[in-house]
Amino acid sequence: MQEKQEFTITIYTENQVGLLSRIAIIFSRRKINIDSLNTSPSEIDGIHRFTIVINETEDVIRKLARQLEKLVEVLKVYFNTNEELIWQELALFKVPTDVIAEKAKVERLLREHGANAVVIRSDYTVFESVGHHDDINALMETLAPYGLIEFVRSGRVAIIKASEGFHKKLKEFEERQPSQETEENEVLDQKEGIFSM
């Protein structure tokens, strides 16, 4: 029996109203929980890219990808393990400025976690961190004792390592020319003998 693991599904689509809900219905009908969802324009004008993270078996992922590709607006679906991707998430942390200034060496804290201060006000400071789950969780644990006011994490953004990109595949498809030669239909030229009752 296959074990569940984290997969990232990349879906290239036309930009159509209501497509997100139709994609979500496919997941909910199969009782698959979405851990992370990000949608954005792609490298191709007019084509959008969904990046969805789920925890499932490979068999389930294969069936899911085939079902997603049946949607009219979906052009291509890829699924990959974490090892096959370059990926990041973004997180913002809001903490009280007076507490963080008194109790923590801010510069050292930022260096240790690769974070940046994006807003410093008298009442709060906002830190930004980019990385994987573990990196972001480690910074959250560090900041929690200082009175974490607010925390938000983005969906995953990912690039497939081995892929030449969907753009190349789309260009190849567009360059294919229809055949100029017409083919005679072998049945239609038999006129009289097609039907016999």
Give an overview of the whole structure:
- The chain is α+β, with helices and mostly antiparallel strands and 197 residues long.
- The protein folds into two domains: 5-84, 2-Layer Sandwich (Alpha-Beta Plaits), CATH 3.30.70.260; 87-153, Alpha-Beta Plaits.
- It is 30% helix and 36% strand.
- The strands form two sheets. Strands 5, 6, 7, 8 and 9 form a five-stranded antiparallel β-sheet that branches.
- Strand 2 (34-41) and strand 3 form a beta hairpin.
- It is elongated.
- The termini are far apart.
- The mean pLDDT is 85.
Q: Biggest β-sheet, characterized?
A: 5 strands, antiparallel
Number of domains: 2
* Percentage of β-strand residues: 35-45%
CATH class of the largest domain: Alpha Beta
Q: Which topology of the largest domain does CATH recognise?
A: Alpha-Beta Plaits
Terminal Cα span: 55 Å
Helix-and-strand structural type: alpha+beta
Number of H- or I-type helical stretches: 6
- Percent range of helical residues: 25-40%
- Shape descriptor reads elongated
Mean pLDDT score, rounded?
A: 85
Number of strands: 9
